[in-house]
Amino acid sequence: MVVKTAFRVIEIVELFAREKQPLALSEMARLLEMPVSSCLGLIRTLEEQGYMYETGRRQGYYPTGRLLAMAQVIAAHDPVLDRVRPALEELRDGARETVLFGKFRDPNTVVYLEVLSAPQSIRYSAEAGETRPAYANSMGRALLSTLAPEARRKLLAATPLAPLTDATLTTPEAIEQELERSPARGWYGNLGESIPDLVGLAWPLRIGGEAYAISVAGPRYRLEPRIDEVAAMLRSACLAIEHKG
Fold this sequence. Notes:
GO terms for molecular function: DNA binding; DNA-binding transcription factor activity. By secondary structure, the chain is an alpha+beta fold. It has helices at residues 4-19, 25-32, 36-48, 65-76, 79-95, 138-144, 149-158, 172-185, 220-223, 227-243, and strands spanning 52-56, 60-63, 98-106, 109-116, 131-133, 188-191, 198-207, 210-219.
């Protein structure tokens, strides 16, 4: 269930993140495809609470620093990310590729909780909060492996497995076979199944009894020759996090 007002506030925040400039009320309403009166009500509420200000008469509105301050406080006290971040940073620095941490949002969907971008100009880019279909995602495959086999078979049988590229596995049987061979080779993979030139490697872990996964993703030409090396780093990072007190 989507609560419309809450959804609209999030849309406003995301709009400014995209546009990166002050916006007039009419422009906001147009971009959000909502009535000007409704948009004004939301903006006035955010302004009264200190999250929005008018940059000048008829010059538009822009978020204040309060939004960032609140986000920083929230992020600094996330108990899970606080535990995993040092290992994620070490893995990113060792692999020199983008490192992602996430879990199931629902059994069909992975949500990225943290993304550490690679120190390369050509890299896989994503943002925390983005979601991906589990069946064609390395992290999703790692998380699917944590489900009971019968529950996983029922889930895959009920999931539309649309091809995202020519390489996407689109039958439950093919995905099950991929999951079966992954533990022995030491990584769950996405070799061009969601984006043609992208490779993703992932491994599952548990924190407080909850299933999570870490993925390393990057351009195929760069990451594929280093799969075994990077996979070993990945497994070590997961083990270190699980053993952390």
